[in-house]
Amino acid sequence: MTHDTAAPHGSPSTGAHPREMHPQRWGDPAAATALPEAARGLVELAFGLHETPAAAEVELPPVGLGDDVLAALADVVGPDHVHVDDASRRLRTRGKSTPDLLRARAGDLADAPDAVVRPGSHDEVAGVLALAVEHHLAVVPFGGGTCVTGGLAARRDGFAGLVSLDLVRLDALLEVDEVSMTATLEPGLRGPEAEALLAEHGLCLGHYPQSFEHASIGGFAATRSSGQSSAGYGRFDQMVVGLRVATPRGEWRLGSSPANAAGPDLRQLVLGSEGAFGVITAVTVRVRRLPEVKVYEGWRWGSFVEGAAAMRTLAQSGTLPTVLRLSDEAETGLNLARPDAIGEESTGCLMIVGHEGTPAQVESRRAAVTEVLTGLGGTPLGEEPGASWAHGRFHAPYLRDSMLDVGVLVETLETATFWSKVDALYADVRGALERELGVEGGSAIVLCHISHVYETGCSLYFTVATSAGEAPIERWGRAKAAANDAIVADGATISHHHAVGTDHRPWLGAEIGDLGASVLRAVKADLDPTGVLNPGVLVP
Amino acid sequence: MTHDTAAPHGSPSTGAHPREMHPQRWGDPAAATALPEAARGLVELAFGLHETPAAAEVELPPVGLGDDVLAALADVVGPDHVHVDDASRRLRTRGKSTPDLLRARAGDLADAPDAVVRPGSHDEVAGVLALAVEHHLAVVPFGGGTCVTGGLAARRDGFAGLVSLDLVRLDALLEVDEVSMTATLEPGLRGPEAEALLAEHGLCLGHYPQSFEHASIGGFAATRSSGQSSAGYGRFDQMVVGLRVATPRGEWRLGSSPANAAGPDLRQLVLGSEGAFGVITAVTVRVRRLPEVKVYEGWRWGSFVEGAAAMRTLAQSGTLPTVLRLSDEAETGLNLARPDAIGEESTGCLMIVGHEGTPAQVESRRAAVTEVLTGLGGTPLGEEPGASWAHGRFHAPYLRDSMLDVGVLVETLETATFWSKVDALYADVRGALERELGVEGGSAIVLCHISHVYETGCSLYFTVATSAGEAPIERWGRAKAAANDAIVADGATISHHHAVGTDHRPWLGAEIGDLGASVLRAVKADLDPTGVLNPGVLVP
């Protein structure tokens, strides 16, 4: 095994993946940019600037596993794939929520795993789980590490140790079926590599969440991810037709057919199970032909309500583009959807409408969507805002790091509801955040957009910026709790696409009921009788 | 309670629903027609005619419940809603598979419930379940009684009695949300009544399985039904956004949002649960505007393979009509999809293509579909075959009764798979049926159609006609087992839309694995600890 504590971040000696992230920041620091000058001015005006660089990387707690257990793990995955060096352990300490970053910046590494284990096959995953049961080790499946809901911060009390099960070596495209238009992918594939492998066959998945560049196929499945092109390509859970899962009780394969009546759809029990029921070792997904044309354009609406009504009309008339998102007045004013334009004046509400497909498909769908939007009073803004959005579509988390650097706390949260409840939910969540963060004093900005639509409803995605203050984690914790309370009081979902993790777990019971919580516990007890898989995550 | 054993079938004194079926036949005998002369000739040629009228209705086994239990049930639902008369019990003895009908015709009423109980509210359902737990009564939820997989033939061994929980009185449209385009329906509503109530609001569900005229909303949900317009309106499980369920452990409500990442989608665990986990007491569904135009047309293909390839092209290019079905050469030759034309000569393979919507939607979709089908070599046949199909779309089960009357066993079975496996599955299931029924001797006809398509695959629906012979139930049992063995050997699903019931239960484990079966048992044990709900159904 690798004990090289002097290894730099991303060095080959830790087996680091090229898309491995910085332990205290989002993504690849080389890809990050400084806070744009225009934004810096805005921030200074709103909150003042308090340069707060992260603490130097601190040493980790000692590895809590004995050499016998480490040797047994090495027997399963090979000695090169058990890592106890600081760099490997540091990156797998929690995920990338703002509280996670604040803790990492403060040098709090209390949740660090004892070891990072990288299996190279389904059987090696099964072998690690068997050892975990034997030695009562908590196991945290790890994909891209992009989780923002505490899903990588498993409980370790009562366990002999905590192992981060890094699936990075499971990175193959196992099978392509161009007749059925399906592909079987291993869970460690990151978004770009999955798309690149499919592109060799002229195919694509079309799944582009904001975490796309770093998140993994297994993570998309385990958390019911939804991407920016969900209007055209669907949610990830709608793409999945088959699953292979390693559980402490053995292998589980699902996926006899696109859809069926052979009892409950158990695939939908694995999707969203967040590593608590088993480790997904292969995912069979529906794929599409690579689009020949991609065009993104902007539309302006007089208000969020008008723009949302237009989205509803598109969804309910079956006239959906590939990408459809709408910023509220506040988000539009700050140009958050157009990072190139931050600092410029923008009024009304910006909608981004994207079309992908063959030239004929794009032409006919674009014409149909344009007719609806024009008829409803939208103002076309041409392709410039669309191009600006597309250029910055994965960049917001870098901006968050830049804001944290100057003492501004930026975080997001999201929910979904039915169309008739959108206005109330928007007002209630926004009101809860503003009240808790004391917007009266000018110390918080709350922005919102709709980025996923259905015939019956849509998501709401809030971005909050506030002065970090003396105790930013606690400050945000109170605001987030107030928002969650408002969400469940309105009967909406605690998460549209970020998942439950540990952060949302206290509110899950209010959404799925005592019996829903009981059923999750029963399934967990059945598949993972000793509870070694992601303890404390998801299951109430 | 009502003991009036002399009450005729359907009389008000048994509280019979107008859509209640004949205990030995499909549907309403008044709506049935005699075997068409042309068909009669074909049948005689193939199998000979052996007029075999059903046995006179026989007496039932005595009611096995004591007066104390009956009185307790009457306390919950009211004395008018506990029925122990023969007519009520007879109709709730099993469902409408051909073996069910053969047993009913032979006077075998061994599976008759002891009592039929008709709750009028969710709370009364909960009250009946509480009594069932207290007295250890098996409870069989009953909607329209159209089940064809033995889902109404629960095990009664070890129980103090068996109660048919008839949901007919739960027949309200509870709520319409025209902004979200959702409606909340009670489970006892039959298809036509549900559509009629929605039509008062200009809305529709668009769910038209062959059982439409008699089946219930609760049954559609509990069995993951799929209708003839699934290409346009989706499967029933895709329509459901919310559920209210009565379980022995209390009430369970699900449905915070159209879709979410709040853990596994537990709605998909209730959908397809076939009354074994709880009793669905309300279903919130996505609805659509009533179509202004409906047009159905015929297309002819040179072969089943060519027609199936055309369906695949439509599904994978996102160019789906509302109705899309394709008969194989044998089914086309017998004009099974065009009951008006039985006896006429038909060659090749008939495809029915239907479009519903606004005039503009129908025009544009019809043009797009026509372009694809023409480009692939299909021959348009105009609207006559479409009208003939639409006229007879719910009539096939009546034809089955007419065939049974003359000694011909007719039964159907269905499955689904991915497109690349369709040819093999078709050949294997057909081969298994022909081998087992001895087609070499000319004693069986096997027909097939595709009636549900997805981007990644489709359903296969087989219709078999064979001479009933001396022991028709055993004869069909062997053929069905051979077909099921072929289905699971090919990795396909044991049912695309008929559900598991008792008939498919022995094959379910092969499809969902030992762990899938274990999970179903765990959920069952959690929600129904004493196992009173539909014992022996679904759960392996």
Automatic annotation (TrEMBL), chains A, B:
It is an enzyme of class 2 (transferase). This is Alkyldihydroxyacetonephosphate synthase. It comes from the Bacteria. InterPro entries: Alkyl-DHAP_Synthase (IPR025650), FAD-bd_oxidored_4_C (IPR004113), FAD-bd_PCMH (IPR016166), FAD-bd_PCMH-like_sf (IPR036318), FAD-bd_PCMH_sub2 (IPR016169), FAD-linked_Oxase-like_C (IPR016164), Oxid_FAD_bind_N (IPR006094). Pfam families: FAD-oxidase_C (PF02913), FAD_binding_4 (PF01565). Its EC number is 2.5.1.26. It comes from Nocardioides salarius. GO terms for molecular function: alkylglycerone-phosphate synthase activity. SUPFAM superfamilies: FAD-binding/transporter-associated domain-like (SSF56176), FAD-linked oxidases, C-terminal domain (SSF55103). Keywords: FAD, Flavoprotein, Transferase. Residues 109-290 form the FAD-binding PCMH-type domain. Belongs to the FAD-binding oxidoreductase/transferase type 4 family. Residues 1-27 are annotated as: Disordered.
